[in-house]
Amino acid sequence: MAINRLEISNPAYTPDNTKFVTVHSSNLQRRHDIVLYNSNAQGENLPVVVLMHGVYGNAWVWMYLGGIHLAYEKVQAELGGIEFILAMPSDGGLYDGSAYLPLKKHADYDKWITEDVIAAVKQVQDTVSDSSRFYISGLSMGGYGALRLGAKYPNLFSGISAHSSITKIDDMAHFVPTELSEYQCDNQRETDICYWLEQNKSDIPPLRFDCGVDDVLYQSNLNLENKLKTLAVNYTFDSFEGEHSWEYWHQHVQTTFKFFAKLELSAKNID
């Protein structure tokens, strides 16, 4: 799949090692953005981490609220020589957050990530190819997106890591006043993370998630863990001190990078 039109930032005017991309999306029927970090990394078939934001965010928040570029640099020496391209897309711009779903009333925010974003990264990064492995992560609503898309499309992603996740669509009510009817999809089970985990349980890539004990979503994450115990799916759940905050995500996204680096090193050794 190729994207028909892309606008790419001029490196002469862009922060170092960073690239801004606007994608003309057929799935959204409008333009939306991706921020790439570590875009100057050298190599072939470099792996990509897709990082998805929460309900109030956009493509830039992981860097300019969460300092993810600094978090990545903190642990780079511990990644065993692995270089990741970090791809941070917008959720597609629905007013109160798209939840990265194929929404009946709006647009296909699911395929925006799984088709458009992946295709765009391959087009704008010479170091990324069809042989590159993609990993998926996110925070809050983006954590929900990472868990659901990783489970629904297990052959697209080589690992899943989620932070402070919304774990069911009802959790959106903690953050936005939108009626839940706005999140209806053609498939009535579409929003159910456990449905997709069960449907594809033999193919689910390595999965981890975490939540702070003072987070409004902590009980929801415990409930998801209890459900996962009944499924034949391998996972790791970690509880940490902290709440629903950028301070928490800046710290624990470092765990995500280390987790994905171990998976990438293992996959490279098999290759």
From TrEMBL:
InterPro entries: AB_hydrolase_fold (IPR029058), Esterase-like (IPR000801), Mycobacterial_A85_antigen (IPR050583). Gene3D superfamilies: alpha/beta hydrolase. It comes from the Bacteria. Pfam families: Esterase. SUPFAM superfamilies: alpha/beta-Hydrolases. PANTHER family: DIACYLGLYCEROL ACYLTRANSFERASE_MYCOLYLTRANSFERASE AG85A, ENTEROCHELIN ESTERASE-RELATED. This is Putative esterase. It comes from Catenovulum agarivorans DS-2.
